[in-house]
Amino acid sequence: MYFEMPLLLLLIIPVALIALYFFQKAFGRKQKLLVSSRAVIAVILIIALANPVSFMTVTRTDVNPDLVLVADSTPSMGYFSTGAGQELYDYFSDKFQIKYDTLGGNSTALGEKVAQYADGKNQIILVSDGNSNYGKTLEEGIDVAVQTNTTVSAVVPTLEKNDLSIELTGDKSVIYSNVQEFGVTVRQAGTGNVTYTYVIKQNNNTILNETFSMTDGEQEKTTYFQTRFMYLGAHTLEATLTSSADTDPINNAFTKSIYVIEKPNVIVVTSEPKASLTQVTGSLYNVTVVETLSAFGASLPDALAASKTVVLDNMFVGNMTDEEVAYLKEYVSEGGGLLVVGGKTSYDYPVGHSYLDSSFEKLLPVVSVPSDWEGIQDVYLFIDVSDSASAHNANNEPILSSIKKSAINIIESDYFKEANITYFTIGDKSRNDTGEFFFVGNPRESEALKKEIEELKTGDGQTDLVHTFDRAIPVMENRSGQPLVIIISDGNLLNQRTYNELLRAANQADKYGATMLFMNTYTNGSKRPSQFNDSRGNIYAKSLMRNYKGDGVYVESNKGLPIYPNFSQMFGEVENPNENVTETNLYVSNPKHFIVQGLNLSETNISGYNGVTPKAGSDKLVIAGDGSPILTVWRYGLGRVAALTTDNGDGNGNYWASELYGSPGSKLISATTNWVMADPNKESGLVIDCPDAYVGQPVTLRVNMYDPGVPVLTLNEQKLLLTMESEGVYVTELIFNETGTYNISGYPVTVNYPLEYRNIGVYQDFRKLIESTGGIVYTVSEAKSLYVKYNGETTSYQTREAVSFNVYLLLLALLIFLAEVIYRRVTEIRELKRLHEEYDRREKESPGSMPARPDMSQFRRQNDMVADAKGDAKKFLAKMKDKTKKNK
């Protein structure tokens, strides 16, 4: 609820003060009651003037629903047959209220269009390849459609010709003489077998000539190469592509500009200057090695200010003073980088002198206590206790009995002996599921969970799997384990729900990487028409697992008996985390982060690590085989901190992580140092930063000015107009309409072919995104023959409508007024009756001695006024009733 004019509520204050004043002045109960009732009425009227409004969700059904047809005519669609959009518009015009919209130019704002039209009332058809490269991503647009319950379908025209594109990826600002890795990504519009050759030139000198193939089904392939840059300033890398399958030369060449800077200063604090960590960092940066921070003495603040990153190797907390820790905190909070490497005298070592609860630990993204092992995975049991589960199976037992036996088998299975399990019921609205997890490796918790499941009885509602997902998703959102959802049901799923609603609810779990298993326990007698399968005989449960965005598995018992799957065959073997191992592999846990992009550490072993627990807000990037964090990062103020909780590769003969400092593990060290460093440029003079661009696409150029004055930059002998973003930081937006390398006061910016020609062919996740809204991907002919059949000529949608409480507040004020008037009138009548009785008694005792009888005309007039008020109230209520009916 909210108020349209909330400031009017301030009038309550003077009303309350006036009422309090007169209440104190009032004599007797009648006057106090009169003052109180009038004050309450005044407050209610003020609230009504402020117009309190609430919103309620209402389901509406439209006949001949609105259809939005978005036709993509951007260059990336040039490989497909033309005219599909107009053809479908002509076909659907007499079947829907249709709006036709097109996309053109050198960019595709497909996500923006979906978000624009996804209002819950429209159905949307995209005639497109699914590639969106401007504004909102397609994923963001589809999220809006899912939230508004809008169905988005797609039509992909016939691919008529193939084409290939090439792109170079990697850092633009690189460090002098360091080995740099770059990627070469080749994409094709089709999905067949193709062979291609690319040539890489560095500063016009050929350094690579390679031939590769894409196999059937591949649309994109990335290969990598390494090189060095041996002088400061601007360089170029150029890739050219040739292939017999290529049809358009516009995207066969890609140039990347490189800007080489001096090696940044890095401080390494270590007692082992010959360890692998120091050797790796020393080869990459301008390193100053000291044994403790105290070696800098009073010049520590200056040394920190001159360095981009500090590396603390196996630092004993007792070797840092409070003043040094304070300097480190200030250094990082103002933008410095900090990498803290583990060992036998850091983090949780030595016992009694660890980082735990120290001032230094507040800098770190971890707490120096081992992570609690809470099972290999989180298992969510969805148990059907709806009334349809009371049907009997082949053994003449209720199907609910088989469902409970299947659930208990899961709990007792060796496969899940290290898992956390919770359960939610389907079809019992009176039950309040807490989402509490039971660690079944603990016999007491395992028995408690089995007892709860054994005591389940048939619920008070119908099968509503959507409601069950809605209760489970918030629990899933706050867990870190990979979820496995196991649905045990009789398969009668579509009770007051559509299949699209069910699929959307299930797809919510895919956001958290959930695997899903549906165990369908039914008999021919338990199947309910239109709830179990569609008109073509397709079982809804099986379709749900097939269309689920993540990994879905379906098993069934058509005799209604318990299901006992072989989980090892179904999901693969599970390693026991409690086994004592001398070595453990490393795994990337967040592959999207800059530090670990494209990095495979599965063949890299370590033999030890420090026990830590990530703090809230940190990002766990690399883990050991048992799930323990090895690399955790976060931001501290303007700076960045990384906790590498294994040793330097040569720590006092321990050699926990010697493999980590060889190939490919050493990339993790350099990437982590580069990430905490953020900007490797020296903080002096003028520093320019601008990414390479595509024709017609805007890019932001940013200038950091460390010297006094305003920067002056020129492009094609013309001064650039710069805007101050913050103190010392200036920005401008650039748009280039031709390819080439442009010189901006010595800084290179390369402009490549229009972005439309980079991602070609059908977007790989297009089908999954469309199906997540309940839509379907069609060909043109399929859309004309099937779209109306699957989507119908009506559409139901939910909308939020405003409801005003003014009428109810006015009625309440009127009722209080009438109640107060009636109360006073009744009191007066009783008092008058008492006076007449007293008069008669005294007249009887002393005839002729009493004055004239009290005049009742005053009360007759009051009676008439009360009657008139009652009549007016009845008329007012009748009018309000008629008005309400008309609104409905």
Describe the fold and architecture:
The chain is an alpha/beta fold. It contains 19 helices and 42 strands. The chain has a nine-stranded mixed beta sheet. Strands 22-21-20-23-24-25 form a six-stranded mixed beta sheet, with helices on both faces. A five-stranded parallel beta sheet has the order 4-3-5-6-41, with helices on both faces. Strand 24 (515-521), helix 13 (540-547) and strand 25 form a beta-alpha-beta unit. Helix 2 (28-49) packs antiparallel against helix 18, helix 6 (276-284) crosses helix 15 and helix 9 (399-412) runs antiparallel to helix 10. The chain is globular. Residues 575-581 have low confidence and may be disordered.
Helix content: 25-40%
Q: Indicate the low-confidence ranges by residue numbers.
A: 575-581
Name the beta content range. Answer: 25-35%
- What Rg is obtained from the alpha carbons, in whole angstroms? 37 Å
| Biggest sheet features | 9 strands, mixed
Summarize the structure.
The chain is built from 19 helices and 42 strands. With 888 residues, it is an alpha/beta fold.
Task: Give the arrangement of secondary structure elements.
Elements: E1 2-3, H1 12-25, H2 28-49, E2 52-63, E3 66-72, H3 84-92, E4 97-103, H4 110-117, E5 123-127, H5 138-147, E6 152-155, E7 164-169, E8 173-175, E9 180-188, E10 194-202, E11 205-214, E12 220-227, E13 233-242, E14 253-261, E15 265-269, H6 276-284, E16 286-290, H7 300-305, E17 309-313, H8 322-333, E18 337-341, E19 366-367, E20 378-384, H9 399-412, E21 420-426, E22 438-439, H10 443-454, H11 465-477, E23 483-489, H12 499-507, E24 515-521, H13 540-547, E25 552-557, H14 567-571, E26 584-588, E27 605-606, E28 613-614, E29 619-624, E30 629-636, E31 639-644, H15 666-677, E32 686-689, E33 693-694, E34 699-705, E35 714-715, E36 718-719, E37 723-726, E38 729-734, E39 740-744, E40 747-752, H16 766-772, E41 777-778, H17 780-791, E42 794-804, H18 806-845, H19 857-887
Parallel strand pairs: 3-4, 3-5, 5-6, 6-41, 8-14, 15-16, 15-17, 17-18, 18-31, 20-21, 20-23, 23-24, 24-25, 33-40
Antiparallel strand pairs: 1-2, 2-42, 7-9, 9-12, 10-11, 10-13, 13-14, 19-28, 21-22, 26-27, 26-29, 29-30, 30-31, 32-34, 34-38, 35-36, 37-38, 39-40
Helix pairs in contact: 1-2, 2-18, 4-5, 6-15, 9-10, 11-12, 18-19
